[in-house]
Design brief:
The protein is mainly β. It has one domain: outer membrane lipoprotein receptor (LolB), chain A (Clam), CATH 2.50.20.10. It is 8% helix and 44% strand. Strands 1, 2, 3, 4, 5, 6, 7, 8, 9, 10, 11, 12, 13 and 14 form a 14-stranded antiparallel β-sheet that branches. Strand 4 and strand 5 form a beta hairpin.
Length: 237
Amino acid sequence: MRKIFSIVVSLLLTGVVYAESGEADELLKEMRTALTSQGSRDVLGNIRKGSTRVPFSLSARGDTIAFQYKQDGTWKRFDVHIGNKEARLMLVNNGKAVVMAPSNYSQNIAGTDVTYEDLSLRFLYWKGGKILPDSADSRIKGRDCYIVQAANPSPGVGQFATVRMWIDKENGTVWQVDGYGVNGKLKKRFSITSVQRLSDGTWFFKQMKMEVRNPQNDRRTIALDYLEMDDIPDKKK
């Protein structure tokens, strides 16, 4: 049976497979199920902005995913609690968790352009998504993809009004995610630049690029960050 690595960021490159006739909401539901049903693994990596590297770790434990990052020599933590209808972001300090205010979702982490919302992939819980008709834009990185579009059910909460995801028709890999503002302009683009494969057949990203676009001209990138993962050892059975 194929195993899928169930850390949040791995949803950007999983092996989830779905029927061609599947609706967008069902597809996102499958991804959420994969997130919480594959056991526990930990990964290490860095958020890189220019010459700055911010160490971070991800740990999945049941329906909770813990993120830790190092800032000014101190490890800080926030959790994502996965529910049936939503994902709650929690700030953790001295072992005590408090619900994060929605106004903090778009707060940058440790001087990078990566936000709490970016790491939590909160848009996976948005309802009413749709699969767009095939077009010339449906092919990316040489792969035929479905383009799934989801609208923010709580306008004004978070940085994106809509999100588009390019999902491989053959294996369910999400190769690219575009986040748009209320004006319809592209705000951020997340794309996989390199991958690694485990012996059990699981694919996981090695490097993900995040581009921040110019608010006046969304064809221009004004900031560039990378999520870079350490080699992932195969989990012993």
